[in-house]
Amino acid sequence: MATSLMPTTATIVARASALFEDLSFAAAREWKAAKSGRRVIGYMPIYVPREIIHAAGMLPLGIVGGGDQLEVIHGDAYYQSYICRIPRSTIELGVSGRLDFVDGMLFPSICDVIRNLSGMWKMMFPHVYSHYFDVPQNYRDDIGGNFYINELAELQHDLAGLRGSPITDDELRHSIEVYNENRRLVRDLYAFRAERPWQAPAAEVYLMVRAGLVLPVEEHTSMLRDYIAAARAEERPMRDNCRIVLTGMFCEQPPLNLIKSLELSGCYVVDDDLLLVTRWLTSDVEIEGDPLRNLSLAFLHHSESTAAKYEPSQKEKGQHLVRAVKRTAAEGVIFAAPSFCDPALLERPMLQHVLKEAGIPYIAFKYAENSGQMQPIREQAGTFADSIKLWSAA
Amino acid sequence: MTTQTKIVTSRAPAKEVVKDASMVKQKEMMAWHYDRLTSAAETGAKVAATFVPGNLNELIMCFDLLNNLPEVNAIQSGLRRVSGSYVLEAEKIGHSEDVCTYVKSDIGMMAKGNLAPNGKKFPNPDVLLLSYTGCFTFMKWFELLREQYKCETIMLHTPYMGDGKITKNMIDYMVKQLKEEVIPTLERVSGVKFDIDRLREHLKKSKQAEDDLVRVLQSAKNKPSPIDAYFGGIYYIGPIFGAFRGTQDAIDYYRFLREEVEDRLVHGQGPVTPDGDMGKEKYRLVVEGPPNYTNFRQFWKMFYDEGAVVVASSYTKVGGVYDFGFRHDPDKPLETLAEYCLGVYTNRSLPMRIDMLVNYINEYQADGLLINSIKSCNSFSAGQLLMMREVEKRTGKPAAFVESDLVDPRYFSAANIKNRLESYFQMIDQKRAGVDAAA
């Protein structure tokens, strides 16, 4: 039972939900306004080293499109119909002034669309620091690692320039420590959900993690801790759902309703690749020693597998998904990719071949961040859940 | 006067296609290369599959490897009008309708027997040289091919010029990859020891051919332009973007081409089109984006029928940008390969691409910019609407936008494109009339 001192899941989720729905980013604006000289650095999926932004005393702000509540008016004028939705709603956020408090934007290496958006941002918002953040596709310490350390140093240098003083190694070490703790809690949350998915519904877990994109990390860590404690303490009814891993949603976000619909149609989400930045690094980053080198080593050797990364080993290709299924005792995989998402859609056949070989059932569909009609997805996911139960019974 | 040849195409409608001598020579070179590839099993030649942007042909040749380029194969399938069935085949086996049709044409071609344009089977590659430059899809494409061929794959990662510059970090990273991963693996696969002097020799040859290519492309600054730098330009780039850069054959071809073009210039002739000499040059355009290949001739005809000649294009820079001074440099062989990869058109930031287009419009005295936006090529297409507006703003010249696809015939709507082009030409006329009236 939850004690009266402990916030309930409902209270915590309500706060996270308000942050999620707020397209003016009031929390981040308030954080910035609270102290003179504060700066906010926006970043897009999949991953940026938020530690460096934090070490500069700035707020990393995750920008993952406009969702299904943003009316895209200007953004559509910048893109053809066959380009995914996240860049157009991101432009809408920018053009409509919703990001006018943001002092810089980072565009990570994920796909050609986000890559080109980095150049568009430079032209559309010339007075805002804008940087394409490249990461290595070579994972040798002395090759890709050295390149990455220099890229990290460039970012460190740029942000130091923005704040007007160097970012010290001790500041970086402190930030690494803070983010290690945050990632541990995100991993705990995922582990808890995999263990008892009825206690931590996918939509709630999503909102909890999503809050980490707009809140200062310390506050988010505290929120995660409270939620896990509350979710453990509250008994919720277990449904006769199957357990699935959700994959392909690492960039443009699905509507929250889509995530809810999956559970309503009989699928507990026990793992996913949503908002990967919050758990990109899969183990703690070393604190002692050169902080940039430590961040680099973590990226090279302890980071998530996803479509935006090259997999050097054919044998290893797709095995992360098989491992996720085994680790979470999942019974199937749902491939959900944004329409026109090159990385997710080009990757999909390869992953499906691996699953087929491993005897893991799957289905696939596409969505856009503003998809409104959930009925077809419910029917597909419901049929999938039924078929899994039938196979299991057999 | 230059020589022209009439070739009766095997495909309906059986109409004679006029080609100038350099086009015939180019076609022979391409055919010869396909014969080399498809006879690899008999000759014992080993094959490296790689991509046009970031094509390291000089290095590949140091290991006696033959270069096979899947985009070029997809283009050939498009021109021969078989890509549509290949794309459908790939979609049937699980590839999304949303993704690159070069990839699907390639995968579909493999599924349907992997036949080269000469009707013989392509050899399986001995190595996939994943030169990852300017296009994210390349990475997935070769992962897909690796799954199929189960052969050695080498990743050469080219960082993106997001901030509009090549940094020392980028060059060091690439040179180190070349030294410690690419070259040792190519040595192992080929059984041939790397000889840097051999590489220097190839690079010297590249430079010579590049000089002539640039002179050919820049001949379009003249009025009338003796070349079409988009449709005709695609013939011109074939050898240097493909398997011939760094060879004596390429030097000979580009010298021959340059002389042919200079001859046309002396005689005040415009470009040769499939229907013969183009009539009076009425419109001078810069084109951004790849062409459609399934209806290539029909697309081209929409231009030359109206007297429109393309004087510069970005697509002819996708396998290397040479017209702003870069040449392969034998004195710094690995660094020059890195610089080459970094500098290809689609690896340049959007502001850099806009600068290039603005420069072309001004330098080539063009009437405006036409963008052919390709449905399945995000590397080119994402951002083109902003590029269009910016180029219009900076040059004061009108721009237009048409949409098609590389090799998927479902996305070529002739009537739509023709309508838009006709409206665009009218717009140019009106703009000119306005300028004349103001004067």
Structural class of chain A: alpha/beta
- What is the helix tally of chain B? 17
Provide the gyration radius of chain B in Å: 21 Å
- SSE topology string of chain B: EEHHEHEHHHEHEHHHHEEEHEHHEHHEH
Fraction in beta strands of chain B: 5-15%
Alpha carbon gyration radius of chain A: 20 Å
What would your notes on this structure say?
- Chain A is of the alpha/beta class and 394 residues long.
- Chain A contains 14 helices and 8 strands.
- A 4-stranded parallel beta sheet of chain A has the order 2-1-3-4, with helices on both faces. A 4-stranded parallel beta sheet of chain A has the order 6-5-7-8.
- In chain A, helix 6 crosses helix 11, helix 7 packs parallel to helix 9 and helix 10 runs parallel beside helix 14.
- The longest helix of chain A has 27 residues.
- Chain A is globular.
- In chain B, helix 5 packs across helix 6, helix 9 packs antiparallel against helix 10 and helix 14 packs across helix 16.
- The longest helix of chain B is centred in the C-terminal third of the chain and has 25 residues.
- At the A-B interface, helix 5, helix 6 and helix 13 of A face helix 7, strand 6, helix 8, helix 14 and helix 15 of B.
Spell out the key features of this protein:
heterodimer, A: 394 residues, four-stranded parallel beta sheet, 49% helix, B: alpha/beta, 13% strand, globular
